[in-house]
What does this fold into?
Amino acid sequence: MTDPIHSMQLAVDIVLSSRHPENKIAATLFKDGVSLSKTNDWPPAILEKLGQDTRIGDSSGTIHAELNCLFHSAFPTAGASLAITDPCCPNCAKCIAEAGIQSVYIDHKGFEKDFAVRRGDEFQDMSLRILAHAGVSLYEVIRKEHKIRLIYEPESGYIPPEDNQIEIRPCRAPLSIPTLLQTARLVKVKHERWGCALATDIHGKLWTLVASAHPAIGYTHKDIQKTDGKYDFILEPVNRLLMGAARNGLKISCDHLWCSVLPSPREMVNLVGYGVRKIYIGDMGNSKKPESYPAYKTLESNDILLFEDMKRS
It folds into this structure.
């Protein structure tokens, strides 16, 4: 079974196994009779070498439950659904939209938790708006009563505008560093922050992915609002690559990923959670935010994530 109430129960059944001491969250990704449940957690390399309390720049070292599901999905996430024990943060909302998730279900008890109450404005002002613009349906699940309450549903036939889709193309060259570097050399994008990667499908066929930083699906640069808080409406290129691969049932090769600048700290943590050990950087002296520099030093000095400076190569 993969109905929403059953899927939510699968998430609730494992939520206490989360190693997070305060905010234990779980999610179930489900589609066509198949499901996957994960909690929020620290990637093993970060947990073993840095522990739970070390900050990675301005980011925690944890992978959120929603992304933990998306990273490990064995099926294309386009058209899939997510059942989550708690309201999702704006960063997860952006990734959920990019991964092509069709419906999100949130346990009613999640709205009552202290963490959710304190962060409720971020969910209402950003997460909900991001999901709505992307055409994602949102529901509240009351498990004991076996009820599902509609929070938001897009208009019939709504298709979110996308003016800068991820480029995904078949590749006849071998899976190799020269193929990655040649892909990077041929990329023509207007944004200074972009990335590319090599990925394989279930048949072993090779694909190239190219993405630049861009507002969440359904938004354009001209219609997003500036925010002064922790979150914004821009999805960075590395996260777009990871989500684009999940949407299409591809697995990014953990040794073949390029970014034009230093990724954000949150992107770096997500890379470690995905299993990436090394990333090629076009310009180590450039980044979206200054916190990327201490983050990269923390990860590289502890042999968690290595950064190859292509300007020096």
Remarks:
- The chain has ten helices and 14 strands.
- The two ends are 52 Å apart (CA to CA).
